[in-house]
Design a protein that fits this description.
single chain, 8 strands
């Protein structure tokens, strides 16, 4: 571990979407001498969300903690921060997949799918879901990225998901991505 990256903090900013927000936030990170290790941006309706994992020495992390609230207020953003006390380590996995599913929008479907993953001891790396109108129905679609731990039988996982998909009345595709 280098002196530059011996401390980490997760930063989240939420607010009305408009051009320049990402530039302002990444400039702040740079001015505070932090490094962006990982980040995600999403637009939800008209709201912008930006989550970053930052690293830096103790003074850099303290600087971002003290300057972000003021900058967030200037930009009209709700901001949150949490110091990370442990470094993220990758688990042993045998493959990475995406699951894409679609169907008529029914309350509880996403909850049942994510419960299926939890019950099979599989962590979700990324999840995107939305709804759209098609003819007379509102449809849902979801894409989940996940890694299969070495102790999980992927074939059994897929067979069991086939049963769940019938219960939930969704069409799906598994794709191996790594």
């Amino acid at each position: 571990m280098t002196a530059f990256s011996n401390h980490q903090i997760v930063l989240t900013a939420i607010g009305e979407d408009r051009p320049g927000i990402v530039s302002e936030l990444t400039q702040l990170v740079s001015d505070c001498h932090c490094n962006i290790i990982d980040s995600r941006i999403a637009i939800l309706g008209s709201e912008f969300t930006f989550t970053m994992l930052l690293s830096g020495d103790m003074s850099a992390i303290s600087r971002i903690e003290h300057t972000l609230p003021t900058k967030g207020m200037e930009l009209g953003l709700l901001t949150m921060m949490k110091r990370s006390t442990t470094r993220h380590t990758e688990s042993e996995f045998c493959a990475g997949y995406t699951l894409e599913y679609t169907g008529i929008d029914t309350p509880g479907t996403l909850s049942k799918v994510t419960r299926y993953f939890a019950d099979n001891n599989i962590s979700i790396c990324s999840l995107k879901s939305d709804t759209y109108d098609e003819e007379v129905d509102t449809k849902m679609r979801c894409e989940i990225e996940f890694n299969i731990p070495v102790d999980v039988d992927i074939d059994q996982f897929k067979i069991s998901f086939e049963n769940l998909s019938h219960t939930l009345n969704v069409d799906y595709i598994f794709k191996r991505i790594r």
